[in-house]
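[job 4471] stage=fold_predict status=RUNNING
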Amino acid sequence: MGLVPAGLGLIRNTNLRIVKILLLLLLAVLLLPYLVTPFYSAGHPVSALMAWRWLSGKPVSRQWIDLKAISPYLPRSVVGSEDAKFCSHHGVDWDALQDAIEDAEDGEAQRGGSTITQQVAKNLFLWPGRSVIRKGLELPLAMWIDLVLSKQRILEIYLNIAELGPSGQFGAEAGSMYAFGRSAATLSAREAALLAAILPNPVRRSARNPGPGVRRLAGTYVARANAAALQRCWSENRAF
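[job 4471] inference complete, writing structure tokens
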């Protein structure tokens, strides 16, 4: 066998070094959310979408409000609408996820299979839209978030980074001010349910001028917020 020319060997070694560097960079990017998450036990984190809007010059409105200052109707309406097992699961509701997968396989309209914790993981560190890759990154990250942050803190972050308006309103305070002209601290049960009803798509749905569908959902969420199981979750498990 002939010897490999020195120039070709040098190119191969350079390529290997480049590949190793790229792999190390990829590993660092993947690990960064896990390293950062414990620091989110305090402070006022922003979502990736908020940061992107800032960088692209689009308007962003967000005024942080502590969970204890928010009207109690809002967190209960949001949990009732978005994640009924929030108090009991460990970041991922595997039953809801399986139902969503089966719906997709059957060609039916896909129900929301993401928990509030998964949405926090996505909003803080990932990107919007449906993607198998994003979901694969989201699931272990959600379980890590549930492990290192309290349920109260997870819900507080969610209520301060969720998009709640059509023109860059993020979080309960900005969403409430836009929709009702007053603080999230003073929301009624009906108003809280209206905000919960627009969470899947606050650009197309409106709590400010709710259509029949949003009003119907709000009525459902008012009832869910008062359900016995949710009341028990609030009073016994996590002391919200």
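[job 4471] summary: The chain has a mean pLDDT of 89.
[job 4471] exit 0
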